[in-house]
Amino acid sequence: MRSSVMPTSKRGNGQEPPAAVSTVGLRKSYGDKLVLDGIDLRIPAGTVFALLGPNGAGKTTVVKILSTLISADPGSGDIRVGGNDLAADPQAVRAAIGVTGQFSAVDNLITGEENMLLMADLHHLSRSEGRRTAAELLERFDLTEAAKKPASTYSGGMKRRLDLAMTLVGNPRIIFLDEPTTGLDPRSRHNMWQIIRELVSDGVTVFLTTQYLEEADELADRIAVLNDGKIAAEGSADELKRLIPGGHVRLRFSDPAAYQSAAIALRDVTRDDEALSLQIPSDGSQRELRSLLDWLDAAGIEADELTVHTPDLDDVFFALTGGTNVPNQPKETVR
Hints:
This protein is α/β, with parallel strands linked by helices. It contains eleven helices and 15 strands. The protein has helices at 59-66, 90-96, 112-122, 127-140, 156-167, 186-201, 213-219, 237-241, 256-265, 286-299, 313-321; strands spanning 19-30, 33-44, 48-52, 79-81, 84-85, 97-100, 174-178, 205-209, 222-227, 230-235, 248-252, 270-272, 277-281, 305-309, 332-334. The strands form three sheets. A six-stranded mixed beta sheet has the order 6-7-8-3-9-10, sandwiched between helices. The chain has a five-stranded antiparallel beta sheet with strand order 12-13-11-14-15, with helices on one face. Helix 3 (112-122) crosses helix 4 (127-140) and helix 3 packs parallel to helix 5 (156-167). The protein is elongated, with a radius of gyration of 24 Å.
């Protein structure tokens, strides 16, 4: 299945910003195995882009190529990061980006502050500037109290925050986050989401890979689903959800007579006589729901429960990547 949806930014402010990352025909193979088969991307500056896909789909390979850790195959088209040609000027690309992977770069044998100062040295900051930057970032990421403690004593969430703080020492305008919240508890994951939102509000571009569909839905302006080395679909979360059929409204009745009246009068319904429920195809829009409720009122028919099911990113993911047993649970209930 292959689809394409034009994106709509959550920050719709008229003209689309310039591209922070763009690829044309990005390819990568290892021997006879083709991992990426012509990837085209355009990621506007100051937005969050999420790349989803099954394990082994090539998400981390995309990040490694765009962050200059590995090379694309010869014959790949134009690849630009921060306006810089990846092949012609990889050093300029490195100067514009920060990378935080699923495996932390934090040195557990030294303190959080020492990790920060080491990163400042790597960026050739002066001693005073390095200390100032480290202190500001440790405070921003709520790590000041733990700054003098060995990183080995930090929780998983603290290590992720320290890792991201270290990434920001060089003030990158584009940050690659490769599964940054894997293994974190829900509170730590939500804290990381807030940090990402704050970064983007400052104009930073975030390229996110994640195995949490809720995370992409929550954060991303644009989402691409990678499958079998190709982009299966791309767009905003809402646009991707509209690709998948199956939205419906379920009416449940306690009065058999009301159930029979509704079943006879309504068109295109699926009946469940045992449960006294009707399933009606619907896109879940406010207009459709209002029309249905108005009809019930006018007919004098009272349903005990109205449940709306709209496809979510789980449904999209399973449909586009060939998964089975797609979840089909109601996402909202109106009584």
